[in-house]
Design goal:
- The chain has two domains: 126 residues; 145 residues, 5'-nuclease (Rossmann fold, 3-Layer(aba) Sandwich).
- The protein has nine helices and eight strands.
- The two termini are 22 Å apart.
- The chain is elongated.
- The protein is an alpha/beta fold.
Amino acid sequence: MANTFRENLNNLSHSIKENIKDLLLEHSKLIYDDLNAGSTNFFVIGIGDYRWQELTLEGKRLQSKIRNEYNTYIEIVRCLIDEVHFCELNGYDKTVLKNVDQNDRCYIKNTEQAYSKVLEAFLEIDHLLDSLHSTEDETLLIADTCALLTNTKIETWKFDEFGEFCVVLTPAVLSELDSHKVNHRNEFVREKSNKLIRQIKEYRRRGSILSGVKINDNIHLRSIAVEPVFENSLPWLDENNNDDRFIATAFEIIKKNIRSAVYIVTTDINMQNKAENACLPFLEPPKKK
């Protein structure tokens, strides 16, 4: 079974912590260096009595790898955490970075203490994520346009990983389908898009599609109307790119359903790559029988 988003994020966090452990305990050293030793008239205060020894080339390469992984991780966390906790998060972020970057003097006497501080910071970040409000646990499948056109019969969708699930339609996908049904150069795609739009409208007759309608005993369909706020999303996403709008919307859904199993459903390799970079789990739609 594919990992959930939280499992992917936890795996990334674990990898970073293991690499930091290697960096601090195997490649780093703190040296006692009292700047006030021998001074009688002038004293430096507030900067710590210990400094980091310069890393070897191997240590610097590991440090660079950690920075890249950690930047990805903390960008994702910032997308999820409420603004009221940003100041708190910034403090934990600073703790991790100062022990990875090793640019500043400190009061920590050894690298074991430094690593302990890093672990405490990651634990507090986990607590912030755990405190996020979430709706009841359910399996949400956020389908992109490619997935829906690959298998238009949503009522026949089945996955080995789970029985009951809810297919979620985003504004970007519905807009794309509306465009395809008129403007796509391929007549077959225009017909399939038209069929899907009619099918979705038929489902709407069963109730509010924004609240979710039952398609069969195992499948519900839900549409969301809210567009993503890119200022609060991953910095590498482009709001003018449909794939990026889809990824940003997926994050909005995950933020409100942090304890649910949320998956992107797509056949698009570029979308899958972007999802993987954002720790978003993805599945391919079931093949049409």
